[in-house]
Design goal:
By secondary structure, the protein is α/β, with parallel strands linked by helices. It has four helices and six strands. A four-stranded parallel sheet has the order 2-1-5-6, sandwiched between helices. A two-stranded antiparallel sheet has the order 3-4.
Length: 109
């Protein structure tokens, strides 16, 4: 359950699987979040930049001076676990989001 003031306390959202294609859902969501003054950190090893921001190949490549509050994962259920492990290793994220319909019980644990 999300706390009432959750959205007022977060500033930076890493978007894992952020596509550079405007028609993709990950791009639409990230663009909206950016328009609401959240700082977006793209995570996609296949692109160098998205929405005017440097894209990193994985969460562990993001410089430690960039504190990540939320990790939003746009990947298939079977591809989620490595990203969750990276998030835990980084240690700074308050929340990990997966999109509706994405289920990975091992990652959940």
């Amino acid at each position: 359950m999300i706390e009432k003031d959750f959205f007022t306390t977060i500033k930076t959202i890493a978007v894992v699987g952020l596509s550079d294609k405007p028609e993709r859902y990950s791009h639409e969501v990230a663009e909206y979040l950016q328009s609401q003054n959240y700082k977006i950190v793209p995570i996609n090893p296949n692109v160098s930049a998205v929405l005017g921001k440097t894209s990193y190949p994985n969460l562990l490549s993001v410089p430690k001076d960039i504190a990540i509050d939320v990790i939003d994962i746009f990947r298939r259920s079977e591809d989620v676990l490595p990203h969750v492990k990276e998030a835990v290793e980084r240690g700074d994220a308050k929340t990990i989001w997966m999109q509706e319909g994405i289920v990975n019980t091992e990652a959940e644990r």
